[in-house]
């Protein structure tokens, strides 16, 4: 069985669990939404500030929600010794990584569509440069999901994992927040040519994260805790 | 299991097709020995070979060729019996057909679409067996397979073991149900204090496991 | 296991102490104050080496992590060295940030500046903290080694990416704003550049001494764990006798 087919098998498993349990839909997406609203409380909506900082707020909300997604992706492996099950399954570590990261990425994309609508509505943002925005979103999401999945398996099974994962992930993905925000700003300002270089940076980050994950996931999964 | 060594100086030799009963008191190291053979516990010192694979270096190629049935089912609570089984079967390249056949073999047909979290203890054990068999393993590692089951459940376990043995699979069973398993086993080995008791053949060096 | 510090280490410590003392003299007395910044500029002689050490320490952690990950070179020492260097690194990173802030206040007028170097150093600080938190999740090198090593390498690879992206960001919005005066100093005469080089030398000596001592402590700690394990094995075997 090829790596790709194994990855699809794992992704399918994770997505099927999500479809059945609906944790992303009923908990994580609403969490993203309430974060957007909290920002409005924190920053004065009357001063015209919100539309200007909307890209940054969007990516911050996505980042915080992604921590929940990553934690969830690995908490389903905690019960019933499922992590041992993954080790015993004979699946290739890199394939498991690709599958889990892909499932997280898809859930994040769903979240981002909803939050994007939220930002447009709540912060009064007029959308331009849709192509740039779409490409940025896809690449940044892959980068986030891949990095998060590496740290997720790294902290899997540890007692302090719920607090460790955020502490580990946030500093590491600062370039993703930076790139995503700048690209969005360029798109909304009507100057997409300023944004595409950031997409390249995000793409490079995503590639590195995926490579790191494929290499490191197997050994990390084998770690006993 | 903590950081303390469970097996210290265990010597064991098993031939293909053997059905070996591992007996001994709780905490003696039976589970650890099985987990070691499954490649779940790392080998810290000594030498061990399972199915021709060196446990010190080559744990992964082993995994497709054996099945482990323990206290946990390794399943996902939100997935049904059939979905869990198909996932495990496809992971080793088997199809849904084998998965469905295994469900029937352990008598879980009516529960095929019940989610794992709703299964009873006995049903979960049967599911674990179905998964173990669907993978068509050369080696079966069973950790107290009768524990927590009613009479029907235990009968199913006995039947599964009998058929698997007849198929020529090698089976290691750690159990307290000595009378029951002695009828199925070709050999018995006692594990006490992390060491193997009964006389065995020419052995490799002692096996030390510190999880 | 001998718990005493060796002669070599003591000499290293003495050399570090002496060179720091000399640095104090050079930095506070001998070197002239900067034209624009005045005496505040003398903070450079501690801030710059501290920042240099932060990155050096992290580099050592990364190298030690690689040595742990390669099966042929794997040894407890590398895991302990990675941890020791990271601990000292986090202290120097914090020091660099605080000193930079103290230096910046009279120079820029603010306590903080979001330029590439400062921002990257701040992110580095948190990457370290995460790494140290991760180290506490395993009592022996076997338990935590691989996990921590991979975390250290990811963080190490991340630092240049962070730096690059922030630098890029700066160049993009530079043309709109007036260039903020960085903590740049005109190196005049002999004593200013000499003192700066000396400060890097003195701090590197200090780092070497601290890492050596910290590593020793970690080895003793680990030795205690190993001994406990050996005792447990002996007890276990004794049960059957």
Catalogue the unreliable spans of chain A: none
Q: Which pair has the most extensive contact?
A: A-C, 31 and 26 residues
What distance separates the N and C termini of chain A?
A: 29 Å
Q: Please tally the helical runs of chain A, counting DSSP H or I stretches of 4 or more residues.
A: 9
- Output the structural class of chain A: mainly alpha
H/E element order of chain A: HHHHHHHHH
Question: Sheet with the most strands of chain A?
Answer: none
Query: How would a textbook summarize the main sheet of chain C?
Result: none
Mean pLDDT of chain C: 85
Count helical runs of chain C. Answer: 6
User: What is the C-alpha radius of gyration of chain A, as a whole number of Å?
Assistant: 18 Å
State mean pLDDT of chain A (0 to 100 scale).
Answer: 93
- Overall 3D geometry of chain C? globular
State the assembly state of the protein chains. Answer: heterotrimer
Q: What level of helicity do the residues of chain A show?
A: over 70%
Radius of gyration of chain C: 22 Å
Distance between the termini of chain C: 29 Å
Number of strands of chain A: 0
What this model shows, in words?
- The complex is a heterotrimer of chains A (225), B (211) and C (241).
- With 225 residues, chain A is mainly α.
- Helices cover 83% and strands 0% of the residues of chain A.
- Chain A is built from 9 helices and no strands.
- Chain A has helices at residues 3-21, 23-42, 49-75, 82-88, 93-122, 130-155, 161-172, 174-188, 192-222.
- Chain A starts with a helix and ends with a helix.
- Chain B is an alpha/beta fold and 211 residues long.
- Chain B is built from 7 helices and 10 strands.
- Chain B has helices at 30-38, 59-62, 81-91, 96-105, 121-134, 151-166, 178-182, and strands at 7-10, 19-23, 49-50, 53-54, 66-69, 139-143, 170-174, 187-192, 195-196, 207-209.
- In chain B, the strands form 3 sheets. A 6-stranded mixed beta sheet of chain B has the order 5-6-7-2-8-9, sandwiched between helices. Chain B has a two-stranded antiparallel ribbon with strand order 1-10.
- In chain B, α3 (81-91) runs parallel beside α5 (121-134).
- Chain B is globular, with a radius of gyration of 17 Å.
- The model of chain B is unreliable at 1-5 and 199-211 (pLDDT under 50).
- Chain C has 6 helices and no strands.
- Helix content of chain C is 77%, strand content 0%.
- Residues 175-180 of chain C have low confidence and may be disordered.
- Classes of the chains: A mainly alpha (225), B alpha/beta (211), C mainly alpha (241).
- At the A-C interface, α6, α7, α8 and α9 of A face α4 and α5 of C.
